[in-house]
Hints:
Strand content: under 5%
Distance between the termini: 12 Å
Number of helices: 2
Shape: elongated
Order of helices and strands: HH
Largest sheet: none
Oligomer: single chain
Amino acid sequence: MKQSRTMSMVEATANVVVGYVLAIATQIVVFPWFGIETGLTEHLTIGLAFVGVSLARGYLLRRLFEAIRMRSAE
């Protein structure tokens, strides 16, 4: 069954949201190990800097693999 573009975006968004939460938690734990002291605002801002790229990457990869799957099904 073909995945719609909308569902690809929903999947990519969910992936990015979960990744964002995990990234913030990881930064809070790991940064102090390297002597990097930042507040929650900085952690959130650093995470947001990568959200757009992650969302685009996830969506484009999903569409690429969907196109490959559809071609192989023909």
